[in-house]
Amino acid sequence: MANYYDIQDILMQDETVSTVFLHKANGAGFLDPSSEDNNVARGSVVDLPLWLAQDLVQRQILHIKLPSCFNARVRKEVQADPACVDLHSKCPFYYEMGCKLVELSVDPTLGPFLLTTLQGRYKDLLCKALTATLSGNLKFLPHLTEEETRLFEAGRDSVKAFKKWRLQGPRIEKAAILGRKRNRDATPIWS
Q1: Which of 130, 9, 117, 106 has its CA nearest to residue 54?
Q2: Domain contains 113
Q3: The pTM is what?
């Protein structure tokens, strides 16, 4: 289910995917720019936004072809070294779109692939977030997906908050009551 008020989710749902119609669609010719009449023929390949394709797949009107950002060539690149691949240029919402396609059962191997990709990139992303300074050179930032950018910013913000607490924040002080000596009676309490 889409988050109605999340702008990132709205932008992700607007990404286009290539689809193949399983049945003739009368009155849907406006979806296919190459259609000469008001109908879409069976087997027609049409690029649709993900939100529309998702609904039509659930109605079994069409099926989604795997986008090129998840094809075998890209998977080999990512498996070779996940941290060096520019996923943002392939799809800014790489993981989110992949998860939506997994829900639609486009490719059964896509889910494990996305998991290993994120695991491979997360360690490097976390190291960069924890060591990035305010004036540091962040050349790698445009190569991150939207999800990775949010993770990076959250990591960097937590480091800033920790440094502020550690260097400027109030110190833990010993309570005054702990500093006083108690007068103890020589008689035990249990007698």
Answers
A1: 106
A2: no
A3: 0.73
